Amino acid sequence: MTDAAELRIRVREFLAAHPPASTDRDAFLQARFDAGLAWVHYPEGLGGLGAPRSLQAVVDAELEAAGAPDNDPRRIGIGLGMAAPTVLGFGTEEQKHRFLRPLWTGEEVWCQLFSEPGAGSDLAALGTRAVRDEASGDWIVNGQKVWTSSAHNARWAILIARTDPEQPKHRGITYFVCDMTDPGVEVRPLRQITGEAEFNEVFLTDVHVPDAHRLGAVGEGWQVAQTTLMNERVSIGGMRIPREGGMIGPVAKAWRDRPELRTHDLHQRLMKLWVDAEVARLTGERLRQQLVAGQPGPEGSGMKLGFARLNQEISGLEVELLGEEGLLYDDWTMRRPEIVDFTGRDAGYRYLRSKGNSIEGGTSEVLLNIVAERVLGLPAEPRTDKDVAWKDLAR
Predict the structure, then answer these.
(1) pTM for the full predicted model
(2) Which of 118, 189, 363, 389 is 20 to 30 A from 112 via CA?
């Protein structure tokens, strides 16, 4: 199906059979997935129609106009943006049919078990071990992960673990789907500078992972993880927002509503950041158009870099603009939220929370290297540990 008009007819027929006003929300979302209207570019039977990615906007517009419920994408962003494309790209048919439907409907929340206390920016140095149980063929996993968003709500996790310490660090890694309800999984909150604990540290003690939950070949987890990481950066830096959406919106509103706060210097800085935000928004639109033709590439790293810089500069300007009001903070209560709400809180929250933007989803320093090497074609930095067995690396 490549015709927008035909797709609109299909959506309207679906709405007639499942009126949003009288259909249970979960039943509506499940039916939408089964009708191929979840993500139209996915294959038939997996929530899609094998149609061009660009036609998703047609579906979304029709459903929004009809008042249809969405799947609360902010709550399940890790599943939608990272787990789903990885399962689609590397999963077996059984895995695709098992995981994609409840992932998209939001019945099962996902988290990402990648970073470790000793393997953050240098993720390939990870030390969590997965050892094959010769009797059952399953894997026994032991280790610690950190900075895990939504782990306290998650049913499943995408996990990378070392299966062969004799290999160099980028090899000998295998990619798994981990059951977060396993008794060997312990989730502990990490309280952040905002007072909340959306992040967690996760301890894995003799966690049994069936070999049927392995994605990709044994020892090729780093290649699988690249799909996750590229999609992660696109999902963070390339979100679709309207003009003056995101962090620039509250600052622009305060400027218009509070003329007594204005100064010439603040005006110059606001105009520059407003233009930068608009350039980033339009660049994101172009990136999404490129995605229609293929898989995400290193351009997503550039978008994520810009997202972090803009958020931090805009939130800093907002605090300065508001003066003493900008120093106030609404609530230091220890909470474990399901979503990160940048625009629903006050300026103090935005200022503090944006500090994490240059760390999460790949540090800005690592992303600068990716852009330099893979986008600009500059020489790679020397890596003396590239061909050294992981077990022989200094730690």
Answers:
(1) 0.89
(2) 389
